Structures are given as structure tokens and as C-alpha cells.
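Batch manifest line 429
LIGAND: aspartic acid
JOB: complex structure
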Amino acid sequence: MDEKRTHKKISLTTWILISLIAGVVVGLVLSFVAPEGSTFDAYVTEGVFYVLGQWFIRLMQMLVIPLVFCSIVCGAASMSDPKLLGKVGIGTILMYLCTTALAVLIALGLAQVVQPGVGLDLSAVVMGNVSTSTTDQTMADTLINIIPTNIIAAMNDGIMLQIIFFALILGFVLGAMGRKVETVSRFFTQFNAVMMRMINLVLKVAPIGIFCLITRTFANLGFSGMLPMAKFILTVYGGLFLQLLVVYMLLFVLFTRLNPLRFLKKILPVMLFAFSTSSSNATIPLNMETLERKCGVDEKVASFTIPLGATINMDGTAIMQGVAVIFVAQAFGIDLSVAALMTVVITAVTASIGTAGVPGVGTIMLAMVFESVGLPAEGIAMIMGVDRILDMGRTAVNVTGDAVVTMCMASATKTLDREVFKQDNPQTT
Ligand code: ASP
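JOB STATUS: finished
ARTIFACT:
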């Protein structure tokens, strides 16, 4: 009884963290007391833990295609609302997409330098052979194959770029046709809500799945898995800081010619709010209020750019995904061709459009990025275990990206009250 009561009080995030730590500890112990070949290893580590872990991964994979399809249709539809297609609308969307693409490139570059996955050998964790080359397609093939000849076949084979391409066009057309296709639009919105509910259900068993996967991983790896995980987390945070302090600040100064430090000071509470809630959506009201009252952005601009940004602009999430791709590819000894890296940029940018601004979704969308270049889904389990630590930082960057683009657009369209920005405490008047 007592146990049940405590069970209710502990949040899912805490359970996931507990299962991660328990998995590491149990796995490390098993690597000494039940080495490969022992009866315990054969029946429990490679038996029960393996099966339960695989079930969890499959539950997630099962949701990827319908979720990605629906969320991208909805995201694209929200972008093509005719009233958004004015100067501010198109400029904002372009800036959102460019900053996200830049974020992935920074992440890929940084991870190539730091090499967080080198020294970690995850190949033993996957049964069967992992192909060490993700694609032998040429760049021309990759470009040609973006357009599906048969969307049902693309879904059947899980060809992500083709699914994304079709979903984007479908979403744009739905948005442009507006009320005439209300029923279809509503179907996608509601189906999306159903998918989110299914994800929540799967996440309920995540602590068990993660415990089994991590235990088995560390039982196979021993202590050699610890350092690369820490390196992975630090690389993601390194990428987040680069995006924040270099990309955003340069853009800010270039467009507004205002003091970037003053901006950072004003936006800090918004970042802290996003950091502690891990939700861009929950941060919308505070972000809008801060931009309007403290930074002098016209209400009409912020009330459009911020909710749109919380829906389609996830630079922090894209950074995590870029680093994760390199990390897992290195850990599995997989070579990523230039075409594969290009695919990662495209899928991560579209994943950002499809990622809802709530905790944890970025890691589910990571499955789509992995699938697009043929990386094993087992890699996601390692990342899921530390997801909350990453989610806090990436959400703070996600919302700051929205705020910076809003400032740039307001300045470019002369809807920025510079005097308000220059005051220290303008809202008191
Ligand atoms: N938590 C992130 C956000 O709300 C999304 C994610 O990457 O999971 O922006």
C-alpha cells in the first residue's frame, strides 16, 4: 500500500532517472559477477532484459511513422495559413528554418571534433550485423529520392525523406485551402493528439524499458561506457552554448544594432523558465510578455512569431539530434557519407517542424533522424536515459531562438520600440 502511494508521487522523469542509474549500477555489477557465457547472462541479461528492452524500442518505432507524418502535416498547415504569408510571416519562417539548419551543422561539426562516441563499442549490444556504411547512394540519388513515386511504399519501407516531403506538401495545401477542407484538417489535428496520447502510454513503461536496455548495455561494456556518455552530454551543451552565444548574438547585433548583453539579461528569466519546465509551449506566455513589455516588440509581431516558433523552431533539439547521430554512428562504428550527413540536416530541420514544444518529444523524433540514415534504434536508449538533462538545456535554446528571430523581424519591419528596449525596467510605467 505504502509503496503504491510513493509510486504515485514520483514523477515519470524521476522514475526514468532512477531506472537509468539502477541500470548502470546493475549492469556494472553484472559485468563482473555474470560475464558473457554464464547461465545468468544467457537467461537474464541476454534473455529477459534483451526481450523487454527490444519490446520497448519496438513500441517507440511503431509510433514513429504515423507520428512524424501527422505532426509534420499539422506543422506545415500552421505555416501556410494565408494570413501568415505576409512579409513578417515568410521572413520569420525562413529565419526559423535557417537557424535550425545552422544548429545541426554546428552540432555535426562539433561532434566530429570532440568524437564523443569514439572508444565506446555498442556493436555488441545489437544482435545481428549492423551495416557499417549507412548509404552507398550518391548525392544525386539522395536528391532524386526525396520525391516518392509511391507514398504507401515509402511508408511501408520507412523512407523518411519521402514521407516528410509528402507530409510537407499535404500540410501546406491543407493550410492554403483553409475552411474548405476543415474536416480533413481536423482529422489530422485530432489524429496527432491521439498519437501524442499513445506516446504518453509508451513513456509510462519507459522506466522498465530503459532499465533493461541500460543494464544489458553496461553488462556488456563495463566501465568503458561512462566517459563517452559524459562526453556526449558535454558536447550537446557545448553546441547549445555556441548557438546561443555566437549564432544568436551575431544575428541579434546584425539585425538590431542593439546591445546583446542587455537582451540576454532581459531574456534570462524566459530561459530559466524553459530550462525548468522543458516545454517551449509552457514558456509562450512569458516569452511574449518579455518581448513586448521589456524589449519593445509590437504585440502583433510577438503574438504571431512566438507561438509559431514554439511549434516549428527547435534549434536546441536539432543540436542534440546532430550530436546524437555522430555519437551513435561512432559507437557502432558506422561511417556516415556526405549524402547521409545531408540527409541528417534535412531530417533534423523537418523534425524540428514536427516536434511539439513539450518535454521529451525531441528524443522520440530522434528515431526518425536515425531511421533516415539507417542508424540502429538501440542508440536511442542510451540517450533517453539522460534525456531530461539535455531537454532542459535544449528547450532554453529553443525559446531563445524564437525570441532572437522575433527581435530581428521586429527590427527589420520597424515594429521595435528601441526606447523600451533601452530602459532597464520599462514595465513599471
Ligand atoms: N522539450 C522541447 C521543447 O519544448 C522539445 C524537445 O526537444 O523535446 O522545446
